[in-house]
Sequence to fold (662 residues):
Amino acid sequence: MEAGREPRLGDVAERAGVSVATVSRVLNNRGYLSAATRERVSKAIEELDYRPNQVARSLLSQRTGTVGVIVPTVALPFYGEVAVGVENELAERGMRLLLCNSFGRADREREHLDLLVRNRVDGIISGAHNDPLPEYQNIRQAAVTIDRELAPHVPNVRADNEAGGRMATEHLLERGARRPVLVTSRSHSRNLRERGYRAVLAEAGIEPLVITADFHTPEPQRTRLVHDALSASVGIDAVFATDDLQAAAVLEWAVQRGMRVPEDLKVVGFDGTIAMRRALPGLTTVQQPIADLCAKAVEILVARIEANSSDCHEEVPAIELPVTLICGRTT
Amino acid sequence: MEAGREPRLGDVAERAGVSVATVSRVLNNRGYLSAATRERVSKAIEELDYRPNQVARSLLSQRTGTVGVIVPTVALPFYGEVAVGVENELAERGMRLLLCNSFGRADREREHLDLLVRNRVDGIISGAHNDPLPEYQNIRQAAVTIDRELAPHVPNVRADNEAGGRMATEHLLERGARRPVLVTSRSHSRNLRERGYRAVLAEAGIEPLVITADFHTPEPQRTRLVHDALSASVGIDAVFATDDLQAAAVLEWAVQRGMRVPEDLKVVGFDGTIAMRRALPGLTTVQQPIADLCAKAVEILVARIEANSSDCHEEVPAIELPVTLICGRTT
DNA sequence: CTGAAAGCGCTAACAT
DNA sequence: ATGTTAGCGCTTTCAG
Fold:
């Protein structure tokens, strides 16, 4: 065998004194093999430190064993944890994860999508956070979203956001809040955390107050946006922030104004990622079951890959997993 | 063309009434083409929404355009940001990123490494945090590490950790600290942040005090470890934590003991990731130039891939990039 | 039980 | 200027 080159099936065959077909058979444990050849081939594989070329296998099998994951950015703890969760589930199945950060930019997501198709990934998990791309219609691979509505026929796995919104708001009222404000990324009727918040306030006869600071606004503008809006509001005594980083901005505002938490201001966040729980252990938050979300998403995706039916055109209801309120010192 | 199948070069050729070679030529813009054929082929490509099969291309070109990234876990902001930085740099070069989380477990890293080789990645960037694996010797692909010593001939890109340790410690002394403690993951002579800390204390004639809580200890044991060690020490008035999450644990300890920060206890962290700066905007920290580290790492890796010389066996000095002290309210 | 050969989708000689 | 063909490394009939 020539040096400086990855060993091939032929190298193993030569060394073991058999044909490539035989080597392939012991590799895949298929067909009848005499114990003697099996032994000799295994030894040759070992000695050459041979590893099958997955590229060649993929070309033949029409399966890459690779899944593309598109998220805004794994630099944010929630998406980082999602990537980890998905990677774990895939690894258990011997599959791999191609990482795509879209930064909430449609053009980036489009490019990534194109690249994933060219690389013939078996499936795509999207947690991107911009408006649905029409390009998703043109692709043949299976797709599943995490916490995102993409299209009626694309399965969406998410936390029970509305229940989470209700729990957070009810909790604030129970702790004596008179005027809980919502701080969220974007306000609209499909914002389920907002819907939970509004439902509870409606029941309590309290006027809602919503502050928005888009997810993808660069710092420090976003923090400034939140702080200014909070300062402009009167009689605020509690905040439900729809993610923990927004909650952090609220806490910072309170510190700068010399307000005591929770006496003067109560705060509840959302997500409860490992990183944020370590950064702000005192924060009351609604924890998403991220590992479960990922497990479910991968389970569904793999099932669709194996079904291989591009005719998955029926509508599918969203799958919602339960959240947990974690009480800290901020309420 | 048959339905439900990705279009192939042959489908395009048939539609355009030319041979596959001609289609390949317009795709790669190689050789002589008449404007007319070029036109017709482009039209066929467009109409079929044809995308070249990268798997087939890789098999032929012996290049996958894919790089494996091994980190402890992108759920932690520092590694999440590294993954984003690397992905960005790769995307600019039309390359892709295969994500591997090792969780500090040697067996996971070994499995990932094996998988990456089987997938014939062009190169590997490792930021894993356990002891160097001997398996790295047996692989032919180019490798670069970020903030990790792997082997003398593997380039290591990192922040100037020692200078960072010095800056943090000097800053604490300037602010009036008498007894700054070091809280770190593991204490040893190659811990450069610790070295910086010790150097400054030696110059000031102060006895160092080092508390360790391993990076990979699961919660809540790690936090408990830190808190107990802090409580057991007397006369502490300042802490240099070698990462921001450790710093958060220290801040939490101070809160629980009713200590004021920075009056009773001054704290400096390390990393300064976007997520942690949002979570704890008040924290004084030594910021790593993560984007620059990634840019440098990818630049070196790509150069080595293109050199294609498996004879990169010469020793290479570590590349250190400057850090920045960010002053917050905790000092 | 094992080997020879076709072919996965593409590119690059080599022809014409 | 374009077509024919071999071959990238592997799996899988089909023979023997």
User: Anything to note?
Assistant: Residues 18-22, 25, 31-34, 37, 56, 58-62 of chain A lie near DNA strand C (CB under 10 Å from a C1'). Chain A has a mean pLDDT of 95. The longest strand of chain A covers residues 66-71. DSSP finds twelve helices and twelve strands in chain A.
